[in-house]
Amino acid sequence: MRRSVSTSVSVLVLAGVALLAQTPPVHAPDGGTMQRIQSIDVPPLPNASFTATVNTEWTRYLADGAISLLRNSRTIARDAAGRVFQERRTFVSGDPRTSRLTEVDLYDPMSHMMAVCDAQGRACELQAYFQPAVPPIPPTGPNLVRESLGIQHLNGLELVGTRETQTIPAGPIGADRTLSVVKEFWYSPTLGVNISTRRNDPRSGMEVFEVTNVDTSEPDPSRFMLPRGAQIIDRRRR
User: Fold this and answer.
1) Which residues constitute the domain of residue 59?
2) Sequence-ordered list of residues with C-beta below 8 angstroms from that of 180, at least 6 positions apart, any chain
3) Residue 7, domain member (yes or no)
4) What is the pLDDT of residues 21-72, one digit of tens each?
5) What is the largest CA-CA distance in the chain?
6) Taking the alpha carbons of 194, 196, 200, 201 in that order, is the dihedral positive or negative?
7) Is residue 33 in a domain?
8) Which of 101, 106, 128, 180 could potentially form a cystine with 115 if both were Cys, beta carbons 3.0 to 4.6 Å apart?
9) Considering the domain boundaries, does residue 205 fall inside one?
10) pLDDT value for 128
């Protein structure tokens, strides 16, 4: 009788272990982590037309010593009225020309409208848009050093170079040591944009933005028009 009870208990224990092994782990949904980098700014300046390509390289230094390198390449444009066209594309680990188009953004300072259209041009969401105020350049001080890199000429454009080195104390951001962030800009006064931007930040890695294939002739007007037949979703407050 004892042997029969012992055998029954053993079978129940083994069945319980098997049941636990087959039960999937349970937890609340995980939102994950998302990182986003801010590309070059294209202000809605009138009488400064151009079309160009923005090439981006994002290098991240991972905790295990590995390096992650992502790229993309996208088209931007601005017409004489100050309207701005920008592609948005995914990052890829290979040829940046293969980055996938995700949306097209249009900015019209005259009608105060911003349109965000999907990659296929099937739907556009309209939002109120007003020319953003130009933020003041932060003054230099013990935590920010600014130095001139001189002037150079590239493809007929005069570029003004600047390097900024910012020291971030450990305490406010929770780091265990002081961090140094270095940024270099080559700015075109004619176009009002940074033709080259290099940011070296230990928190996010190295970000390089290069504006190439600059054409200062008037862009194709169709770039600044809503796609024909697109569903219009108007989010503006009247």
Assistant:
1) 50-234
2) 165, 166, 167, 168, 202
3) no
4) 566 778 888 877 777 778 889 999 999 999 999 999 999 988 888 999 999 9
5) 100
6) positive
7) no
8) 106
9) yes
10) 95
Measured torsion, CA atoms of residues 7, 12, 16, 22, in degrees rounded to the nearest 10 = 80
Per the structure, how many domains does the chain have? Answer: 1
Give how far Cα 201 sits from Cα of 9, 57, 147, 184, 237, Å.
Answer: 62, 14, 18, 12, 39
101 found inside a domain: yes
Contacts by residues 11-20 (CB-CB < 8 Å, ≥ 24 positions apart): none
Give the global pTM.
Answer: 0.82
pLDDT tens digits, residue range 112-127? 999 999 999 999 999 9
Distance CA 147, CA 162 (A): 6
Nearest to 186 by CA among 146, 150, 223: 150
- pLDDT range class, residue 210, cuts 50, 70, 90: very high
Q: Is 213 helix (H, G, I), strand (E, B) or coil?
A: strand
Element (H, E) at 126: strand 123-128
CATH number at residue 82: 2.50.20
Return phi, psi of residue 120, to 5°: -90, -5
